[in-house]
């Protein structure tokens, strides 16, 4: 996963667990793409202080993910949702072709399995 996307997801899922100062600085660095120099000037701290704070926030947020696995679950649910859409599209094609009932039953059973997996994950 691309670093920026990963950091954005971490912030979206766990950002509220950071202090206000940490959230503000991290959001400016990651979401607003400000340079460390710009952030340092805005908050009256050194560029090194911004760098250290962002790295510390990365570690904190990754620690939450390691324990809670919310992003992993989110990604898994997204993949299963894509599978459901693909199966539904296949079903539509099958219905249009009016082929065998066995293929239709297999697709429906797979949709049921994926849906049950999603419910278990939530």
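-> sequence recovered:
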């Amino acid at each position: 996963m691309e670093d920026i996307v990963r950091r954005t997801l971490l912030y979206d899922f766990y950002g509220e667990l950071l202090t206000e100062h940490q959230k503000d600085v991290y959001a400016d660095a990651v979401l607003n793409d400000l340079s460390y120099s710009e952030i340092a000037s805005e908050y009256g701290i050194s560029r090194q202080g911004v760098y250290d704070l962002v790295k510390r926030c990365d570690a904190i947020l990754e620690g939450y993910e390691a324990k809670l696995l919310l992003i992993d679950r989110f990604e898994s649910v997204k993949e299963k949702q894509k599978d459901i859409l693909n199966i539904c599209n296949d079903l539509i094609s099958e219905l249009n072709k009016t082929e065998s009932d066995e293929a239709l039953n297999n697709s429906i059973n797979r949709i049921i399995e994926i849906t049950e997996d999603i419910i278990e994950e939530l």
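The two ends are 22 Å apart (CA to CA).
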